[in-house]
Design a protein that fits this description.
Layout (H helix, E strand, L loop, with lengths): L1 E8 L2 E8 L4 H10 L6 H5 L6 E7 L3 E10 L13 E7 L3 E7 L3 H10 L5 H34 L3 H32 L2 H6 L2 H64 L14 H22 L4
Parallel strand pairs: 2-6
Antiparallel strand pairs: 1-2, 3-4, 4-5, 5-6
Pfam family, one: CorA
GO molecular function, one term: metal ion transmembrane transporter activity
Membrane topology: Multi-pass membrane protein
Amino acid sequence: MIEKGQTTSNDIVYEWIIVEDFTEEELGRFSKAHAIPLDLYALNKESDISYYNALDTDHHGQLNVLHLPVWEKKRYGTIQQANSTVTFVYSEELVVCVLSGLDSQWMADQLKSHTSPHHAMVETINLLYNDVEDRLLLLKQSIEDLMKEAKEKADRDVLLNVTDLEQELVFFSRRIDDFDETISRWSEDSIILNTTQTSEREIIALRIKKSQYNSHLYKDLIESTSGLLSDSIDNKLNSIMEFLESVALVISIPTLIFSLFGMNTGGLVGRQSPFGTVVVIAGSLLLGIVMALYLKRKDYM
């Protein structure tokens, strides 16, 4: 489906086109008809990374491209591809918007409602960062909860949760960095400088910096939490091993005495006495208790 329109501002007529629900053949014909030297179909299906480039054409002069994948909030930190994509191909007086999964009516409203259709790119970026910032708030709460759990207990469930969150933040921070590079290059484009306001670009730059800062900060926090949890588990394991070794030492004393009196040789004192068994048991228990008290006093048990 193709929708076309015009916006007039300061005696300049801007044309805009929305393309959606397309096949590869249809988009190929459209690109050829509008002299766009780019495989728009392949680019629009790229749903992992953003893209910006400037093209020199005979028909349009300078023709620039901005491609943005858009994830749902919960999928930003997963290995899954983006739910939808939007590709803007634009010159001074033309904006072509190729949509895959995004609301075409919303995009049409943005193209119509501003002094130039180039503002639709600004609104799309702001929409994208609304979801990014909402996801960052959820990640912040998850990190705070995990840090609290890690301090209270160190078990397998907490470790698995920390690992999952750490993995999510790796994906999330990489995607934020990708957006930062692409949109920073886009904001320096001469066409964008002429068709958008400085305040709008500054707001976007601030949102990018804030999101990038928070994503890296949260990544560092969860890594430190993971280290704390690992140290807590190691400490707990060391305490358990220390206790077991102490118990084994206490038991070894009676075991040694019983072994001596169980030998098939004669000559041991008290071996033939009717009270020998009681004396051996009592002596073994006494020595075991003394060893246990000693280890307890040394905080080994």
